[in-house]
Amino acid sequence: MLRRRPISARSRALLAAAALAVLAGVVAYSLGALGPLESEALSLRFALRGASRPNDVAVVAVDERTFSELGLRWPFPRRLDGEAIERLRADGARTIVFDVQFTEPSDPADDLALYDAVRRAGNVVLATTEVDEHGETDVLGGEQNVRAAHAVVGAANLPSDADGVLRRYDRTVLGLPSLAVAAARRDGHAPPASAFRGGSALIDFRGPPGTVPNYSFSRVLRGGVPARLLRGRTVVIGAAAPTLGDVHPTSTASSEPMAGPEIQANAIWTALHGNPLAPAPGWLALLTIALAGVCAPLASTRLRASRAALASAALALAYLGAAQLAFDAGTVLEVAYPLLALATGAVGMLAANYVGALVERNQFQRRLQQSQIELVRRLAAAVESRDAETGAHIARIGALCERLALELGWPAQRARMLGQASAMHDVGKIGIPDSVLLKPGTLDEREWQVIRSHTTLGGEILAGSQSPLVQMAERIARFHHERWDGTGYPDGLRGEQIPIEARICSVCDVFDALLSHRSYKHAWHARDALAELRRCSGAQLDPQLVAAFMRIAPTLPQVLDASEADAPAPLALATPQPA
Fold this sequence. Notes:
two-stranded antiparallel ribbon, 3 domains, 8% strand, Hypothetical protein af1432, alpha/beta, 6-stranded parallel beta sheet, single chain
């Protein structure tokens, strides 16, 4: 049966990065956290698309030129509004939209002149911003007068976003059709309710201010505008002079605000054409967020992290291009949220690669260290195979060395390494002939020289390694028979010239050797072995290490039991006297 290959740390980190990126994008999208950025992206797309001058709407603007030429203050006498309607009717305007509110009575003669002009035109849409709870208004004195004049009323209110920018128009306001919908309905091209998501729709601005044909109110009154420029168009009449305050920022990416009548003209154009600019469905936004979030982590499984990051940047540019093409075709794709997911995924991918590489490197180092430890144990086992009596001795030496090192304040990891390295202290014996190593009787001088050579032989076996563990084992193997007073071998080192690892191992080696049975001696009692250590302190052994050993002596039965000690009797130690 095939075993499933475990998932690497890097792969797990990449999966986590992808999940985090998708989650960040989806949560931000659900909360609308990047609404201002998305709005800016929409404005940028308007700018990139450029202007498209419409041929079915126009604006008659009460602008600065009008005030200069007429010499009147606002509001103008309503008879002038009536004259403008008569002129537009004569020029063949398809629908006349008056973005001026006529809810309060003025001079009766002027009001009547306006009313008669509206009635004769029969194609006028009047604006209001005041609607009661029943959807009725006071335009021209009430709904009865409006119907008698064959006019319709639309709400001129336009919703602004949180940043104060006008980007949308409503289908209805308190039950009254918006001005754009009323105008489109009068023209017979009102968009269906399904074309309004959440009751509103994006205004498909034809371009920055001035894109919709604009003609001065005074010029129209005097017949200065050729009829062909107005014939068949929906014409919006309204206040465009900045001093009148009806100017607003829009999503056309222009720093110049747009006059209210031109905004209404753009909304009317949008309604006449069935709201051609529509947001993409929510499921598509979520899909693009998910795909963007997993892009960089997925690419990183096949590419290097740097190339995966470049691929993510290229994808971002490609998506921006696709978003612009979709916008030009009438679909508004979410931009900020997919790019957030993509950027989060790219950053997460880089972090995952770093963390994964770090984890895998640590795992490799642990495996390497385990291999080194296994090598040490196998070499120690080779020594044991030559001298069966020393097998348990090697295990006990490791436990004693580690315990003594901890007593000296060594970090646990270094103390553990010492316990592992100490197993190699007699590795040089592997090169000692059996006739000497296994001789049951007393060794002669020549044989003692051969036995003593196991220190240099052990050092040579372990020399040249880059492993800290093997380097420590080399120092132990070479110098563990040096003496504190300088009379040891192989180099006759004195005091602290002897490496600390070798001095620790020497104390533990002497103690355990005294407790162990050998072919040439009986096992000593624990009290006698401790007394011998005190006697050797300052001569053979480091006095500070002997003192530390005495402090841990009461705990040694547990240490030796855990190492499968082969002492003839349990250690029953009283608290020792200072060395």
